[in-house]
């Protein structure tokens, strides 16, 4: 049993969990696609770039790689700045949304192991104290 009486090693492939994971993954992919589409279209119309260049710029921007070139117009720079905040946040949120439950399970298991080690160390200390007493 983990903290709060929850079973730590539960079956993670149950139909309910699988369905929730697929839904979370779908929402995350949709979020990323929408951000990429808005950024691509925005840079295409604001800067007059080709779609592929706009897509490449946006993908570099939202993954925090840093775009290869800077927009020429002020409105393009403002739009790119806005997309940087929204895009990076969206990508990070999507990854956490997908990986969060798995990371939480790993975290709980790790805490359980640490608690077990602490109890073992306390038991050894107590035994050592009892041996040292006359």
Features:
134 residues; mainly alpha; Helix Hairpins
Element layout with pairings:
Layout: H1 15-47, H2 51-62, H3 74-132
Give a structural overview.
The protein has 134 residues and is mostly helical. The model has no long low-confidence stretch (mean pLDDT 86). Helix 1 packs across helix 2 and helix 1 packs antiparallel against helix 3. It is elongated and about 85 Å long. The protein has 3 helices and no strands. The protein has a domain of 85 residues: Helix Hairpins (Orthogonal Bundle), CATH 1.10.287.
In short:
This protein has 134 residues and is an all-alpha fold.
* Structural class based on helices, strands and sheet pairing: mainly alpha
Give the second-level CATH assignment, the architecture of the domain at 15-99: Orthogonal Bundle
Give the percentage of residues in beta strands: under 5%
Main sheet: strands, sense, barrel? none
H/E topology pattern:
HHH
DSSP helical segment count: 3
